[in-house]
Amino acid sequence: MEKSRNIYYCYPVYRPPSEHASLLIQLTEGCTYKCDFCVSNLNKNFKVRAINDVKKDLDTANNLYGARVRKLFFLDGNAMVTPFKTLLEVTEYAFKLFPELQRVGVYAHAKDILKKSDKQLEALSEAGLKIAYVGFESGDDQLLQSINKHATKQDYIEASKKLMNANITLSATLINGLGGANKPEISRIHAIESADLVNKICPSDERIWYISFLTLMIPPGTVFYQRIKQGEFKEMNSFEILQELKIFMEYINFVNKKANCVFRSNHASNYLPLKGVLERDKKKIIDTINYGLKNKEALRPEFYRAL
Ligand SMILES: C[S@@+](CC[C@H](N)C(=O)[O-])C[C@H]1O[C@@H](n2cnc3c(N)ncnc32)[C@H](O)[C@@H]1O
Ligand code: SF4
Q1: Which of 8, 69, 77, 219 pairs as cysteine with 14 (C-beta 3.0–4.6 A)?
Q2: Structure pTM?
Q3: Do residues 177 and 282 share a domain?
Q4: Is the same domain home to 162 and 29?
Q5: Does any domain span residue 115?
Q6: What is the pLDDT of residue 41?
Q7: Can you state the angle between helices 84-97 and 51-65, rounded to 10 degrees?
């Protein structure tokens, strides 16, 4: 019998930039949430695919790529919603197939992390699910509610601790510009509460964890897009965005000074590429932000920004 050469995808697929070289396998399609800024839930009916279909795709990928597969990412925007047994079974199956596989990753809404017990997260981690990408967006509960995120700062604190206790690496994203233009107080609270959230989840050991900032983009079809059209929301400019990021950085203050928090704000949506380790590189990052605030020509032009 001829072996299949086609792996199923429901386009467009959603994966973190850092998983660009990973094997992508469609475990879920779409998303159960409808956050106001996000396109992952548009034009797709949510489903967890049948386990045998997912296994068939893994078999096909094994025939095509075999030992070249070192990282695997289960699509789509929130595969942590997958029932525990299914997620465990496909993760274990992948590790049986690919001899060089090092880790499996998923996007994970905080509520779906919290719905899994500590024992279940430990079992997933032991099976090889080693990284979860969580969208925090903000540490400010009012802002989170206003963007329909269906999660609170406390949810993020608890979900982060659960992941870390299970030895699953946390990679969390925050979004600059969520409050909109001409709202300095909302922007300030967003920055301060987000820094407080990051301070509170900092582990006491030297493990690596990731915090990244994206800058709000307005894709057509989203609620934000409608709000702009109706004049209810105006995007912050690059100056306001950098001010917000600077306040966030000033409020970073870890109890554990040996923490290994890899900080990135170098996504295509960002105006100024920033990276470093927190809190060690805090001053260097603030200096770079100050440079960007004074030198507009150092910033990414609007037309180059993308998601
Ligand atoms: C595909 S989502 C998956 C997140 C995961 N489902 C969750 O809710 O935790 C990935 C992340 O990209 C970022 N993102 C999505 N749409 C964005 C937009 N319009 N502007 C800026 N960042 C965005 C958000 O940080 C979001 O959490
Ligand atoms: S941010 Fe995450 S939870 Fe919200 S709609 Fe997008 S993928 Fe779903």
Answers
A1: 77
A2: 0.97
A3: yes
A4: no
A5: no
A6: 84
A7: 20
Closest residue by Cα to atom 6, ligand 2, is 38
Question: So what's the pLDDT on residue 1?
Answer: 44
Check pocket membership of 130 for ligand 2, CB cut-off 6 A: no
Q: Please give the torsion angle defined by the CA atoms of residues 51, 57, 61 and 62, in that order, rounded to the nearest 10 degrees.
A: 50
Ligand 2: centre distance to CA 218 (Å): 14
Is the distance from the beta carbon of residue 16 to the nearest atom of ligand 1 less than 6 Å?
Answer: no
**What is the distance in A from the centroid of ligand 2 to the CA of 4?**
32
Q: Could you tell me the residue range of the domain that residue 54 belongs to? A: 8-107
Q: Please state, in angstroms and rounded to a whole number, the distance separating the CA atoms of residues 151 and 109.
A: 8
Q: What domain count does the chain have?
A: 2
Domain presence at residue 203: yes
Domain check: are 181 and 68 in the same one?
no
Q: Report CA(4)–ligand 1 centroid distance (Å).
A: 33
Report how far ligand 1's centroid is from the alpha carbon of 157 (Å): 18
Q: Is 11 exposed, middle or buried (0-12, 13-18, 19+ CB in 10 A)?
A: exposed
What tokens appear for 168 in the block?
Answer: 């699953």
Chain segment 117-127, per-residue pLDDT in tens: 999 999 999 99
* 109 in contact with ligand 2, CB cutoff 6 A: yes
Atom of ligand 2 nearest to the CA of 14: 7
Torsion angle of C-alpha atoms 21, 131, 187, 231, degrees rounded to 10: 60
> Average pLDDT of 6-34?
96
DSSP state of 107: E
Whether the CB-CB separation of 127 and 167 falls below 8 Å is answered with no
CA of 100 to the centre of ligand 1 (A): 30
- 37: domain CATH number is 3.30.750.210
Q: Which ligand is nearest to the CA of 107?
A: 1
In a domain, residue 171? The reply is yes
Check pocket membership of 173 for ligand 1, CB cut-off 6 A: yes
Ligand 1 atom closest to Cα of 174? Answer: 25
